[in-house]
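fold-stage: in
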Amino acid sequence: MQIIDGDEFSSWRENLSGKSSDAEVSAAVEKIIAAVQTEGDKAVRRFAAQFDKSSPEQFELNADAARTAWDSLVKSDPGLANALKLAADHIARFSKEQKAQFKNFEFEIEPGIFTGQRIIPVQKAAIYAPGGRFPLISSVLMGIIPALTAGVEEVILTSPPLEDGLPDRRILAAAHIAAQGSAQGTAPKGLRIFALGGAQAIAALALGTETVPRVDVIAGPGNKYVAAAKRLLFGRVGIDFIAGPTDVLIIADGNCAGDSAGSAAKAADIIAADMLAQAEHDPDARARALVNSRELAELVAAAVEKRLANLPTAETARASLARGGLIIIYKNKAEAVRIANTIAPEHLELQTASAEDWIGELKNYGSLFIGNEAAEVLGDYSAGINHTLPTNASARFTGGLGVRHFLKTVTTLRCVPGAAYKTALDAAEKIALAEGLAAHAESARSRS
């Protein structure tokens, strides 16, 4: 991990993003997609045998599998079960509030011309939940609950099978409580679960096979092969976004922990803890901090080393920090804001005095964590906001996963003949003629 001054930042811009999908990955995924398109289930089973821990004969699970896994979790780990219930409740309540912001309307834009919009959920959506080193139990909640709250008729969860042919039991348990925690309050008949992983799962869901239904939208995180499959199939299926390695940027001035003599050291320790929470994900993860003094920068670096000494995931975290860990010393607020907006982080933390004063100038981030108490880990798991967020600086143009990804905003037009209606027809005819589209003009003229 390096410490640099803010005016050196421009030379680091090429290192802002995590490792991008390379040509070799894309070529491999293109072959998988082509095979699934022509061979269907046969190809999916072949790739599952090659890449997953097993290749089950039947991809879809029995309807009782999630409930069985949940009952088992309640007995074996009631603390985790209660934590998942709390998180599901918060995510459902937040999603319901999001849904309320999308409204149908119709208004009379001119006498006799009624324009409007309708909000319609997609019919089928898939949520991908990775297995791998860290089964993302929480991603199940973050995907299923917004989809169900949006009103999707059929939600499909897909996750890689383990040696016994089933996904991680905690993922199955989370699927059960996600359905129970949805805005509907009861498990919908439309929730289906498939033991499928990798690029072959994305291809099967986007294209459809003999036993895997074709969906309208695919959402959820995954490895570089999953991300490449989503990118290559976008257009044939809707996606949330193409996720890259996770990242965090922490803006700090050492004052958020109070005014005591040890406040700077305490602030540095919290910054270090939050940087490591990102770094432990993956060697390509990016943990960065913007601090207002070299003293604070050195305190953070020391705190990181101290915490690494006892961290079970230290090997991964060290690799991440060596590749892209960075502490930037900013001269003033304007410089810090400019750098933050350029980085456009997935997670942006404000650990400063008067953190609210920064909000208006910060434009590019996936989620904003305001003040020392707003731990990013709460956003990851239990506060209710979604943790599936834009990476690789794509927060410049999009936000995180939510109810909106499962909704279509469509427009309507209704007309009653009159003077305003005739004026609009005349305008349409003139514009059509200017574009050289004679049939368009005649269509307008036939109604005048």
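fold-stage: in (second)
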Amino acid sequence: MTLSAYPDDDAMAPRSPTFAISLYRAVGRLLTPLAPALLSWRARRGKEDPSRRGERLGYARTQRPDGAVIWLHGASIGEALSALPLCARLLEETGTSVVFTTGTVTSAAILEKRLPVGAVHQFVPLDLPGPASRFLDHWQPDLAIFIESEIWPGLLSALAARQIPAALVNARISERSATNWAKLGTATRAVFDTFDAIAAQSEADAERLRTLTGTSVTVTGNLKFDADPVPVDADDLAKAKNAVAGRPIIAAASTHPGEEDAVIDAHRVLRDRFPGLLTVLAPRHPQRGDDVAATLSAAGLNAKRRSNGNYPDAQTDVWLIDTVGDLGLVYSVAAFAFCGGSLTPRGGQNPMEPAREGVAILTGPSTYNFADVYSDLQQASGAVSVDNASELADACAALLSDPQRAETMGRAAQREVARQTGATERTMAILQPFLNGRDR
């Protein structure tokens, strides 16, 4: 199948970069010599794969396949997982190949295991003229699809210069981000004008984008509702369930620095009231495992680390899930879970994964990354919000004391997620004009 350069018959003329974008690229050229040092520094902090730093500079590790190629890009784990069903549909319906880029080590590890046949992962190039040109020279994509809020002026202007259509799908923009973009004035419109189609998660996101850009924005819903269930190895799950059988469990998933202290406080407050209490703790970034383990030890808690291949025993207070791709295990052994990034001002982590598994949800007050989702889940009685560590302990105690309530909340959350599926289908409809076309 061939892809259309643009959905209409008349080829669009190359779009000239505005002064702001030209300045952005000029500054990028000046900074380019510093890129290797930046990547080395990030690699030392565990934020880059040392063996694949060349990809960040635009050098591919695999050959370009014959035929049309679609470039699909998401920032990290959440965006990548939400786009997997879309990736599969693109491969199935177009017969093209997909180069799927992300920017984090953890997302790369997960995609290496879960990408469908016909797709290959590469780290996204730095938003600098040299890396961008090398990436595009090699892959020569026929269509570029960016997920959520991945807006890189350099890459977008390079696509526009080559007349490669670009779409922003599953788009979201918070009020704070919209305010910041608005301060850039005409530069904002110049950046967003490089998109040939924009599809938003919600009407609120769409309206903010329309106000900013003056362009048409379609609401397609949230791709995360269509994501596949988090995978769990059957043998591993059986061993885990055997290890925790009969114990009251608190689960805390995707926690950020500072939130582990709240979870520890809840455990210490509740362990006498609920004998045998086990906390299953999964930091958002598994590379923080050593730091979290040290915090647990300093708090006097006996912890077993998943990264060491350990399962909890009768003396274990906390099972520390410091590995990539094991949230499915967390949600499979718990009736409720605290979703991190919400007691600290980080906007909250994805609540749809536990909801899909029928797990009741606890969240802190910071949920702007998923504001509509959390609102819907709370209205459906599938989630409860807490403001601090004390309220987190109280909420955990209420659900531990009333397992039936936790089960009822979990079913409500599961129904709400099921009710809002269909974004992949609607997104495919938005992309269809670029997928059914003529030779370029």
